[in-house]
């Protein structure tokens, strides 16, 4: 009887019940529908706030999230309004002044997206503060008009 394994041992951990795999389509379903109802321009702005996109990549992402029929042909026009084209790699990035319109709690953002956005916004905030402090340094000091004149 050496080498025989007992069928059940007292105190053994019971086998866990397996849960059926989740369908990735349903995982973000509520997030997807919340974004789908938002204005198309806002959707483009919030995607470009995270990273630069080439037009086909951006269109693909928008299609995955769901796109209304009326919006399909307007991507080029919206990109002209909200993005600048990087001619080196044909990618689009969000225009600087639109970062102030980005909602940190945008329903289409995952937790990772929110962290990325937080880093981007803090970097932009720091660079704008540096630009402001540099412009203060280049200004002239107090005027000499109030100083007594020498004779």
Automatic annotation (TrEMBL):
SUPFAM superfamilies referenced in this protein's UniProt entry, alphabetically: Winged helix' DNA-binding domain (SSF46785)
RNA polymerase II elongation factor ELL N-terminal domain boundaries: 8-124
Positions of the UniProt region annotated as Disordered: 1-35, 122-151
GO MF entry, a single one: cis-regulatory region sequence-specific DNA binding
One GO term (biological process): transcription elongation by RNA polymerase II
Gene Ontology CC annotations of this record: transcription elongation factor complex
Record-given protein name: ELL2 factor
Protein species of origin: Pachyramphus minor
Organism taxonomic ancestry: Eukaryota, Metazoa, Chordata, Craniata, Vertebrata
